Amino acid sequence: SMSVILTAAVVMVYAFTFSTAFAATVPTVDTQIKNGSNTTITTASIGTSVRAQTTVASSTGPVVLGTVDFSLYSNTTCSGTATTQSGVLLASGIADSSSTTVGSNGLSYKVFYGGQGDVYASTTGSCVGLQATSGSVGLNSTLSSSTVLVGTSVYQTAILTGVTANATGTVAYGVYTNNACTADKVDAGVKTVTNGVVEQSNSVQFNNVGTLYFQAKYSGDQFNSA
After folding, report:
1. Which residue, 37, 44, 28, is CA-closest to 113?
2. pLDDT on residue 11
């Protein structure tokens, strides 16, 4: 008799599945603050008209398309509540905000880029601040009394106007015997200015009958004129 030996060949089939995760490029968002002459600035006088200009770019990809949102803050640190200008279209990767006026606190911008499909990811740029300056500072002062008896003391208070919100420096007070404030000075103190607020002078006692004249002088600081 004959016997047939059957050999079964088992073929193992392995299925391999490949998944590709595509990461969109994160572009750079560079923002500068410009004045009316299109000059990049970091300081500007109170009342100056300025705008932000942002450039969104990548060194490894095509020209960036899409839109940006400009967030404008009334301080130099991008803190607190912002006023947002949304959906500003990029042209060759560049966009400009609308113009605004510099206040005594200065201002700052932060720009958000919304992305471009699978090409560029959304991202937010760094805070860019502008320090306010003032070249037209005023100094108003009053006396605690304009007529007093001999032996009474008088002091002077001073208020700065037109200064930046963070104004520093000093105010020097003096008392004189002539209205030009040049003769027989009596020192009434040099007082510190903190955030635009001035301390009052020392009290000066009047021991003789006559007319005396007080004067206050502001030193100015790096952002405010004397």
Report:
1. 28
2. 47
Task: Please tell me what DSSP assigns to residue 134.
Answer: B
- Through-space distance between the first and last CA atoms of the chain, rounded to whole angstroms: 125
Give the pLDDT confidence score for residue 22 in this predicted structure: 54
Residues 6+ apart with CB under 8 A from 120: 24, 25, 26, 27, 56, 58, 61, 64, 66, 113
DSSP SS3 for 205: strand
Tell which residue, 87, 125, 113, 110, has the closest CA to residue 24: 113
Could you say which residues of the chain have pLDDT below 50?
Answer: 1, 6-16, 18-21
Which helix (H) or strand (E) element contains residue 112?
strand 107-113
* Cα separations in angstroms, 187 against 156, 207, 219: 12, 16, 16
What is this structure's pTM? Answer: 0.81
